[in-house]
Amino acid sequence: MQERKLESPTNHNDSLLARSRHAVWHPCTQMKRLETFPLVPIERGEGVWLVDCDGKRYLDGVSSWWVNLFGHGEPRIKQAIKTQLDQLEHVMLAGFTHRPVVELSERLAALTGLGHAFYGSDGASATEIALKMSAHYHKNNGKADKHRFVYLAGSYHGETIGALSVTDVPVFRSAYSSLVRDNFIAPSPDARLAGPGETARDVADAAANGLAAILAAHHEEISAVILEPLVQGAAGMAMYDPHYLTRVRALCDQYQVHLIADEIAVGFGRTGTLFGCEQAGIKPDFICVSKGITGGFLPLAAVLTTDEVYRAFYDDDVTRGFLHSHSYTGNPLACAAALAVLDIFEHDDVIAANRERAARWSKRFAGFAQHARVSHYRNTGMIWAFDVEDPRPGFAQRLYRAALEQGLLLRPIGNTVYFMPPYVMKDDEADWLVAGTTQALEAALGGQEELDDAAIA
Ligand SMILES: *Cc1c(COP(=O)(O)O)cnc(C)c1O
């Protein structure tokens, strides 16, 4: 209460920022830093643009943490939520069901070949569900010792305690390591690791051989391998050869270990196919989806799994059932938004249209590969990334700030700059993205300011 008086806000926006700093604990943020680098108060969004309270526009180059697939305010998703709102806003999913959740489950089953959908409210809860379901499956099959997991170097699967136990991003994990149980870490297939004369496929094979050694030694205590198909997002958009997924699928079969595909970031078209796993022609035992599933309108996650897993829980005994519940499981409004997203994929033939967009935008973005300080320029589907050499710490913060000045929302991860634009970006907006990023890059590399490396993803 005392503190609040000290701010003495001068105008409406300052007051909103001050109130936010006092009352809202912002995610992935050192709150003290907001003393010198203020929040951006956003009033509205339209298409790829976010508009702040002073009317300044920012092109959302990262689809607001990878969720707004169709930009902001997509009218069809909005309308679907409004229609559902007049019908039923919520009912508990234990003992009850409703049309949107049934339809969504059937459609996700048809799209993935995994016929049973369990719902949560965000990505981390999907990870928790998949881990618990996998271990409980083995327990129900008389293999209670299979309760550990394998995750990849550089992996990110969320930040709840279970999800952190399969996440290898030190800045998110270290402070909580005493809370997190040990699992097995396998090498990353990140194509940037290729030595001279090596291909991405060679790196994939080497990483798969590393995984094979872990499984050979420990498969009797291993429940599942969890991975992000094709692109490890939080690792800095680490892209890899689909061959790795083929190898992992075969190894999981060989050692009777589940394969959990975390499609939370890459699902719904981001890698160029509806799901990343499709590019290796493999079927995982679990697929986790969230982020783009509602196009950024409402929180929703789902874990999809096989008949085989489902049958292991089907019994008269309650304790053999899957015991997990979230209050908002299968919320009808969120399911209606997700159904609208699937309709858009069908109606607009989004995957095919994205292929053409990606080709056009790649021509525009390719210039970054020529920049003297840029290495590992790369692209998978609707993700573009490159690494920037800057001897000083704090590049991510400097670029983030310089980009905002240019009217661009970019959030570099370490020294990796990436674009994950909304699929609806127009070509002239892509040009704006290139021009703004080029300016911001020069400003960030030329700036004198020394900053800490930001803990941002
Ligand atoms: C974002 C993300 C998560 C966690 O999702 P939240 O909704 O932030 O909890 C998990 N896995 C991957 C690959 C992600 O990108």
From TrEMBL:
The record marks C28 as: Participates in the substrate recognition with KAPA and in a stacking interaction with the adenine ring of SAM. Its cofactor is pyridoxal 5'-phosphate. It is found in: Cytoplasm. It comes from the Bacteria. Keywords: Aminotransferase, Biotin biosynthesis, Cytoplasm, Pyridoxal phosphate, S-adenosyl-L-methionine, Transferase. One of its GO terms (cellular component) is cytoplasm. One of its GO terms (biological process) is biotin biosynthetic process. One of its GO terms (molecular function) is adenosylmethionine-8-amino-7-oxononanoate transaminase activity. Pyridoxal 5'-phosphate binds at G123, A124, D262, H326, S327. Homodimer. Catalyzes the transfer of the alpha-amino group from S-adenosyl-L-methionine (SAM) to 7-keto-8-aminopelargonic acid (KAPA) to form 7,8-diaminopelargonic acid (DAPA). It is the only aminotransferase known to utilize SAM as an amino donor. This is Adenosylmethionine-8-amino-7-oxononanoate aminotransferase. It comes from Silvimonas terrae. The gene is bioA.
